[in-house]
Design goal:
By secondary structure, the protein is an alpha/beta fold. The structure holds adenosine-5'-triphosphate (ATP). Keywords: ATP-binding, Nucleotide-binding, Transport.
Length: about 240
């Protein structure tokens, strides 16, 4: 269950943090952080501010390490930052940071246009992907008139539609209602691509291959979900008793 042991037994990782250092201004988030991620389904857990979003942003090249190296799909995020978005899908915790177009159709079509599809082709693809999720009626809707959960769903569809080689999800289900969450959980489990997902929804992570528990920018525990989630729950209950 130690980070060192995990690194020894797992070749060909999707993501490698090698002595990465990262700070938000004065606040150091990671200091010489090393971790290799290669399983098909990896969950990231940890209390608020433990570094989950920062880890995902570093892996996507949205943030760069001040020291050390982050490698995603074999690409150094510092030197190959521009190549990463075409291969790695990223879902922001806050949909408003992701959404840039007025209508749902245009938002989903954007990625296809970026890949070189004509506007007409891209809009057709957007409609096809909305229909896969039973939401064709959203095509012409104004994104900012949608609820938070609906916006989150649009962002998730936009990410999945481009069929990236690796998918990074930052709390994808935070605002989704239970039936939508369950439907998406099934859709995600069925995907071939590897997924790294930060979540406070521990039940969702139970069938994953590996869970990494972050605490203050360090790996507190790392291993099979049943071990890591149980230890995390036990710690949360201890913390709760101390608060009351
Ligand atoms: N934009 C920012 N400016 C300054 N500090 C930040 C910023 N974003 C995050 N931090 C700090 O970086 C640290 C790690 O934050 P991060 O968002 O990675 O944590 P997290 O585990 O994703 O938290 P949460 O569960 O609340 O989403 C925290 O101490 C946080 O206060």
């Amino acid at each position: 269950m130690t980070e060192g042991a995990a690194r020894l037994v797992r070749p060909n990782p999707h993501i490698i943090f090698d002595q990465a250092t990262f700070a938000h201004g004065e606040r150091v988030v990671f200091d010489g952080f090393s971790l290799s991620l290669q399983e098909r389904r990896i969950g990231l857990i940890g209390s608020n501010g433990s570094g989950k979003s920062s880890l995902l942003r570093l892996a996507h090249g949205l943030a760069l390490p001040a020291g050390g190296i982050v490698t995603t799909l074999g690409l150094n995020t510092g030197t190959h930052r521009k190549q990463i978005p075409s291969q790695v899908g990223f879902l922001f915790q806050n949909p408003d940071r992701q959404i840039i177009f007025p209508t749902v159709g245009e938002e989903i079509a954007f990625g296809f246009q970026e890949r070189g599809d004509t506007r007409r082709e891209a809009m057709h693809q957007a409609l096809v992907w909305l229909s896969r999720f039973g939401r064709t009626d959203w095509f012409e809707r104004v994104v900012h008139d949608l609820s938070e959960g609906q916006k989150q769903l649009v962002c998730l569809i936009s990410v999945l539609a481009l069929e990236p080689s690796l998918i990074l999800l930052d709390e994808p289900f935070a605002s989704l209602d239970l039936s939508t969450r369950l439907a998406f959980a099934d859709q995600l489990q069925a995907l071939d691509q590897p997924i790294v997902m930060a979540s406070h929804d521990l039940d969702f992570l139970a069938p994953f291959d590996r869970v990494v528990w972050l605490e203050q920018g360090r790996v507190r525990a790392d291993g099979p979900p049943r071990d890591v989630l149980e230890a995390y729950r036990a710690e949360a209950h201890r913390g709760m008793r101390e608060l009351v």
